């Protein structure tokens, strides 16, 4: 963090700059910022300094950022020089744009990569995560590490810590309503964007960890098809379900980030090669078009709360206006959908926990062994660390039953194979059959209620701000589709966003 004297000087400089300039950084989109760069109203260095100052002021309240990159200003200076020299990469949309990455995404620099745990403090990663490498190639500035639920919410199911809590940064606060769950595990990624502590961020999702915090903090989150973005260098839970995606204030900004990070990575070769076939020719930006809802067939399941729709009266009433908006903008709503053998299919979802604990041990051990230096080299080491330092920053308050369950597994045996087979069947005869039989472009769910359906099959989803409740608490609407359907989902999400413009920044006092 910055020394107090430097912070005071910086605050005065930025206050004057914001007041005297026509350009306002808060709520500025990537396009706004690039236009300001082009017309010499802003430099990347000034932008980074502004965000560092905002983090200094706001992060003690919201606890969304674990570390600020000490080299961020230097990276911004390089970006400014490249722009001045009109270097080829200065044409990239993310050039000079600050990005916070979740603290389970590796950066080979002065930043730690710890998943919020002291067990990985001072560990040294062998290289940048695949998505970070792509960000750097696009000219983005790595501003720092966003806070998260410790170990991406995969520590305890008996007494789970509050969403977003980790030993290093403590418990985060929802910037709209302090008592509202900010949701996890990409909590810091969502809060930092919502409060304008950064332009855009990266989150990760195994089951709901992009979609839920995006919904609860009034931002846009894209959970990509598994493998569309590399997971190399990401502290894992399950290679079968893990994915990395953008969290931003607008659909357009989220698509700019997605465009930058998708594609093949030799360090996640099998998954990224397979998913690369889904990248549309000409990229994703052409799908940011007006009228994107017209003719889209959108499914709504009112009868199955456990399959992604909380069918209580309050929720139904709250989202009726959204369904009307979709209709008014040309979407065709297919309602009251039914699933044959629903009870049998939903029971197969129980296999997710069985599969995850086994996959976690294998994947985490592989990640830890590859580290250049680390206090821990296996899941067993992590468990021992937590037991030894149980009194450290309330670690003792939260058990590690999921860790213990994972450590007791022995690879993918008969039980795990059966669970994985059931998950495949649940996806094939549940979600996929529903989508194909009804010729749906997307399934629409309130909040992030359909996250498990999308998670177990590796399907994509986009959460868009959908309004605020009577207490001011934000909520989103989610559009989910089959693998590789990101172009269609972008058209739907962008169409909804442009028709509603629901998002508004949180009311933060003492803003410059």
Structural account:
- With 512 residues, this protein is of the alpha/beta class.
- The protein folds into three domains: 4-276, Amidase signature (AS) enzymes; 297-343 and 426-500, no CATH class; 351-416, no CATH class.
- 40% of the residues lie in helices and 11% in strands.
- The protein contains 17 helices and eleven strands.
- The protein has an eleven-stranded mixed beta sheet, sandwiched between helices.
- Helix 10 links the parallel strand 7 (297-299) and strand 8 (332-334).
- It starts with a helix and ends in a 12-residue tail after the last helix.
Set down the secondary structure blueprint.
Elements: H1 4-20, H2 30-38, H3 44-62, E1 65-68, H4 72-84, E2 98-102, H5 130-137, E3 141-146, H6 187-194, E4 200-205, H7 211-216, E5 220-223, E6 243-248, H8 251-261, H9 269-275, E7 297-299, H10 313-328, E8 332-334, H11 342-347, H12 351-370, H13 379-388, H14 401-407, H15 414-437, E9 442-446, H16 451-457, E10 461-468, E11 474-480, H17 486-500
Parallel strand pairs: 2-3, 2-4, 7-8, 7-9
Antiparallel strand pairs: 1-3, 4-6, 5-6, 5-10, 9-11, 10-11
Count of helix runs: 17
What fraction of residues sit in β-strands?
A: 5-15%
How many domains would you count in the coordinates?
3
Q: CATH superfamily name of the largest domain? A: Amidase signature (AS) domain
Task: Give the strand order of the largest sheet, numbering strands 1, 2, ... along the chain.
Answer: 1-3-2-4-6-5-10-11-9-7-8
Mean pLDDT: 93
Helix-residue proportion: 25-40%
The CATH architecture category of the largest domain equals Alpha-Beta Complex
**Radius of gyration using CA atoms only:** 22 Å
List the quaternary state of the chains.
Answer: single chain
Distance between the termini: 19 Å
The shape is globular
Total DSSP E strands: 11
């Amino acid at each position: 963090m910055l020394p107090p004297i430097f912070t005071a000087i910086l605050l005065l400089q930025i206050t004057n700059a914001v007041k005297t300039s026509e350009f306002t950084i808060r709520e500025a989109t990537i396009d706004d910022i690039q236009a300001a760069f082009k017309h010499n109203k802003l430099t990347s260095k000034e932008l980074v300094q502004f965000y560092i100052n905002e983090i200094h002021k706001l992060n003690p309240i919201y606890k969304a950022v674990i570390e600020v990159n000490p080299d961020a200003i230097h990276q911004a200076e390089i970006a400014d020089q490249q722009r001045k020299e009109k270097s080829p990469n200065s044409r990239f949309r993310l050039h000079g744009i600050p990005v916070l990455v979740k603290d389970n995404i590796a950066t080979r620099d002065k930043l730690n990569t710890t998943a919020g745990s002291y067990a990985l403090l001072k560990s040294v990663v062998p290289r940048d995560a695949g998505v970070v490498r792509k960000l750097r190639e696009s000219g983005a500035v790595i501003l720092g590490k966003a806070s998260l639920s410790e170990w991406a919410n995969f520590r305890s199911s008996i007494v789970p810590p509050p969403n977003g809590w980790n030993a290093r940064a403590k418990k985060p606060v929802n910037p709209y309503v302090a008592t509202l769950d900010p949701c996890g595990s990409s909590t810091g990624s969502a809060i930092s964007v919502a409060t304008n502590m950064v332009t855009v961020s990266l989150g990760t999702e195994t089951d709901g960890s992009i979609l839920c915090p995006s919904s609860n903090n009034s931002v846009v989150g894209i959970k990509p098809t598994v493998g569309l973005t590399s997971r190399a260098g990401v502290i894992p839970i399950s290679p079968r379900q893990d994915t990395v995606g953008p969290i931003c204030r607008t659909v357009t900004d989220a698509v700019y980030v997605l465009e930058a990070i998708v594609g093949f990575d030799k360090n996640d070769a099998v998954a990224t090669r397979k998913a690369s076939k889904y990248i549309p020719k000409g990229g994703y930006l052409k799908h940011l078009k007006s009228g994107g809802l017209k003719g889209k067939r959108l499914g709504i399941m009112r009868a199955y709360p456990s399959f992604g729709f909380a069918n209580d009266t309050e929720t139904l009433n709250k989202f009726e206006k959204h369904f009307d908006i979709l209709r008014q903008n040309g979407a065709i709503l297919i309602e009251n959908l039914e699933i044959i053998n629903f009870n049998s299919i939903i029971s197969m979802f129980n296999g997710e926990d069985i599969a995850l604990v086994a996959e976690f041990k294998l994947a985490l051990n592989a990640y830890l062994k590859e580290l250049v230096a680390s206090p821990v080299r296996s899941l067993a080491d992590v468990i021992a660390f937590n037991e030894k330092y149980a009194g450290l920053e309330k670690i003792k308050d939260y058990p590690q039953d999921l860790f213990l369950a994972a450590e007791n597994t022995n690879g993918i045996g008969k039980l795990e194979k059966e669970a994985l087979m059931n998950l495949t069947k649940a996806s094939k005869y549940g979600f996929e059959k529903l989508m194909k039989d009804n010729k749906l472009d997307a399934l629409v769910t309130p909040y992030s209620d359909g996250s498990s359906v999308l998670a177990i099959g590796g399907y994509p989803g986009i959460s868009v701000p959908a309004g605020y409740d009577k207490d001011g608490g934000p909520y989103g609407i989610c559009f989910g589709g089959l693998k590789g359907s990101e172009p269609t989902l972008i058209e739907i999400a962008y169409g909804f966003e442009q028709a509603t413009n629901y998002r508004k920044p949180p009311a933060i006092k003492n803003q410059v």
